[in-house]
Amino acid sequence: MHGWAYLLALESSNFDSYVIEISILILLLNGALLIGSAIFLSQYQTAALAALMLLTPYLDKAFQPQLTFVNKPLNIFIATFSIAICTFGFIYEYLSLELIIYTLTISALAEEWFFRVYFQSKVITFTLNFTNKKLGVLTGIVLTSIFFSGLHAIAQNNMLMMALIFFPSMIYGYIYYKTRDFLLITNIHFISNILLYLLKPN
After folding, report:
1. d(CA 68, CA 64)
2. Where are the domains of the chain?
3. Which of 23, 95, 98, 188 maximizes the CB count within 10 A of its CB?
4. From CA 185, how far away is CA 183, in angstroms rounded?
């Protein structure tokens, strides 16, 4: 009986090790694909990055998105505020329809799907194998934010962007970890970018 229990424990340990190794490879693959697209596919950069961010998580058979919709009043408020701001910006020609659609579908939705729902969750799960929960969560959010801001800096050929985007990314990461509300974090990301476009000097 003890022998069978030992073998089962050993097999379980080997399986866990295998899952960890596969997870590392998938994360590295995703990172390489995104960085490669940012550097080399300049003509189709936007479409390539959006497609990769939306689809590559499904290469991971263990991908199980943790999604909730618990902040309905806040979501409605932010969505209403976003519509009002976008309408104002569009009417007075501060914002184009193309910019609004791009900001929503790629800058907000696709980025949050990949970086928060998939990548951050995966990194946190991985780091929890080696440390306590608080440090593991913090490490996951920080590493994701470094990757997130670094990719933006590479794509825009501006290393200053890394410093400017890192801290908002930390906030997005924390909000998603605490709520698991994909719609909420997409809304927050969207309106943050829209306000940035409106407030930055021409």
Report:
1. 13
2. 2-199
3. 188
4. 6
Helix orientation angle between 45-55 and 2-40, rounded to the nearest 10 degrees:
170
- Tokens read off for 153: 């800096």
d(CA 82, CA 76): 10
Q: Is the pLDDT of residue 170 over 90?
A: yes
- Phi, psi (degrees; rounded to nearest 5) at 110: -65, -40
Render pLDDT for 62-114 as a digit per residue (tens, 0 to 9): 888 877 777 788 888 998 999 999 999 999 989 999 899 889 888 899 899 99
Place of tokens 């009417």: 91
User: CA–CA separation, 22 vs 138, rounded Å?
Assistant: 23
CA distance 185 to 163: 20
The answer to whether the beta carbons of residues 37 and 52 sit under 8 Å apart is: yes
Query: How far is residue 146's CA from residue 153's CA, in Å, rounded to a whole number?
Result: 10
- Nearest C-alpha neighbor of 141 from the set 163, 179, 170: 170
